[in-house]
Each structure stands twice: as C-alpha cells, then as structure tokens.
Amino acid sequence: MAAADFRTAVSAYLQELAEVRLASPHTIAAYRRDLGAFGEHCGNIGLQQITRLQVQDWLVVGHAKGLAAATLARRLSALTGLLDSAVQAGICPANVAAGVRPPKKSARLPRTLPPEQTAALMQPTHASADRRDLALLAVMYGAGLRVSEAVGLDLHDIDLHSCELRVLGKGSKQRIVPLPATAADLLGQWLDERLLGLVRDERAVFLNRFGQRLTARSVQRMLKTRALESGADISVTPHRLRHSFATHLLAGGVDLRAIQELLGHASLATTERYTHLDIAKLTEVYDRSHPRAGRRDS
Fold it and tell me: Which terminus of the chain has fewer Cβ atoms in its 10 Å neighbourhood, N or C?
C-alpha cells in the first residue's frame, strides 16, 4: 500500500506541475526520474515514513556515484516540492526535506564564441536548406533565443515591419524582442521561400524537408555541420550562441537589466553571470599581455 501511496503522490504532484504551475516538459521529465530514483532508494515507503536521514543518505549515495552537484540539487528540489505538496494536502505533517541543504554548485561560467566564429557560422554554403539555416542562426543569435524558443516560433509571432518577435519562453511567459535588420532580412528571404512550398497547414516558421516543425536536435546537428565547414569550434551549441549574444551585448555597453529582459531571465542573478565572464576575460587579457602581469608589487 505504501508503494502505491508514493507513486500516487508523485503522479498527482507531476500533474500539478504541468497543469497549474506550467512547468516545462523537461522539468517534469527530470522530476519524474528523480522521484522514481528516491522511491527505489527507499523501497517505495509511504510519504509519512520518509525521514530526514533517508533524504540525506540518498544525496550522499548519489554523490558517491559521481552525480554532479547540479543534479543532486535538482533531486532535492524535486523531493522538497513533492513533500511540500503533500503537506498542503494534509498527507504529511511536515516536510522533512525542507531543512536539508543542497550541495554547492561549482561556479561555471557560460561558454561563448568569439564574434569572428559566430560570423563564420553564418556564411552561406551550398546546402539545400541554407536559406532556412541562415535565417534561423541570425534569429537565434540576433535575438538571443533559446533553441526551443526559436523552433517554437509560429508565423503570427513575426512582425517584420516592426522588426520584432513574440517569443514564448520558460513557464509559458511571453516577451517581445527586437530583431536586428540583418536577421529580419534573412528571415524575410526564408519566409518567401517557405511560402513557395505551399505548406498551408503548418504554423511553424522553421520547417524541415518534410514540411514539419524543425526540432531542437536537428538544429544541433546543423550547427555541428556548419562548424566543421567553417572551422568554428565544433563544440558549439545553440545555447552558446545565446551566451555569445549576451556577452557581446555586455561588451558593447548594454545595460544588464536590458539584457535580462531580452533573454527572458526571471532573476537578474542569472544574467549577472555574464559580468563575471567579462571580468574573467579581462583578467586573462591582462595576464597575457600586461608587462607587469604576474609581478604583484606590495
């Protein structure tokens, strides 16, 4: 009975995340795996039987298996959310995971591409889908979109006259972002070609060769191919283009709050990572080129 209670509570919590809190499918899938792993670790005991020690033991075992700090923190977040929901429903008297501290995450700076490599990725090739790819890359880099936001664009989200895009971001939050003139021109060229295909029943802006919405995985493969052809860093990802967009804006003097709005970050702290990146770059340049670098006078 206890195992059934645990699985039922998990199912109800994930449904709440999807329908009430509008969590992303990626978050829900990750939480489902995390809570399933906790159930297996504890033998699917009832929610009221879970102890703080079991929560801590679960995290310790995960750490011993080599799980990243971010993964362990997400696992704790999933379990804490489940128990919070159970407390609110009157199933549990208290959330025993609430006082458990997540492991510290290592401070990783976002990886970016130099402007010249970004430009190389956007050079025309002889590929049959080149006009689409050029427009897609120009939109992703020019507006700082997540790959899910770019492939999720529909025709009614585009206003080429005003050079603006309506973007559906995380948590189903909409924002309006400006589109650089070059990106708008390339997007207009792709839309002209797209309309010639007479795909009347597909709202997506970016289509594959079957006339269906392009997937994030396809974009990743396309980027790898273009990186190989252009001599750019083959570890490039769609998110590195987004990081590059933010870093290049910061280097150009754009206000951090404005960058936060463009990226659709809920917290300014997330955007502030780019200031650390800028400082790290300045330090690297100083140590490499300054005549007194490495000689700290007292």
Answer: C
